[in-house]
Amino acid sequence: MTTATDVRPVVVGVDGSQAALTAALWAVDEAVHREVPLRLVHATGIPLEPSIPIDVYRPELHYGESALRAASSAIEATGKTVKVESDIRWGSPAAALVDESCSAAMVCVGSVGMGFIVRRLLGSTAAALAENAHCTVLIVRRRTSAPTSARTDWIVVGIDDRPDNDLVVARSVDEARLRNAPVLALGVWCDTAVGVPAEELEYRVAKWRRRHPDIHMYPVSTRWGLPEFLADNGTELVQLVVLGTHDVADLPRIIGPHDRPFTSHPECSVMVVR
User: Fold this and answer.
1) Where in the numbering of this chain does the UspA domain appear (predicted)?
2) What band does 263 get if pLDDT is binned at 50, 70 and 90?
3) How many other C-beta atoms are found inside a 10 Å radius of the C-beta of residue 47?
4) Tell me: the pLDDT tens digits for 156-166?
């Protein structure tokens, strides 16, 4: 719940794609939960030059308006009560959304692949946001399967000794409550710099359980990093991985190109907490 003085919106990058619609629908719950507006932003990808007649830009303007209408209609169809704002920004999508992040509670974007080749050749708005945004970023991927009674739809978060870890874990707990999901708390015991041994992991998870008795949280120790753990454990569904800013470098290995995902969880979304 937010206060009258904290009404920073949840921002969604809208480009007319199905991926962007998926991000917008995920963001609805985030905005409703915070009791803040949902702000839809379309960036044209081209700068607005005063010396060029405005008629030259009308196709881009019409496309942006159409993309925003489609996203607004999809949100309205959910029947959820949320104030929707929309805007068209001229210029780079990455630059526009990084700028929006200065006054946002969260920025949500769809992911269309973040592997090295994709990023090098085409650029990646999601990658730029994860690295440069001033607020939490949520990279949303489309779910094509649903959890069953035999498979749990986890939220995964790392437990470590970094200064921001409490904030990262707290955000994973918020998401677990919002999504009615359990939390898998991963401790990397062989990392002498920031890792935690199994006994310490159990102790920390017990503290989080006492603070949030409504949340199911399970500790798991591993000697490998989070991307490797996900790659080796594909028997359960993972709907969301929650990272701190120190782990942004893991994003290409967690998400990767859609046709060759690194992990066994090609549908999980990723949140980078700030």
Assistant:
1) 8-141
2) low
3) 10
4) 999 999 999 99
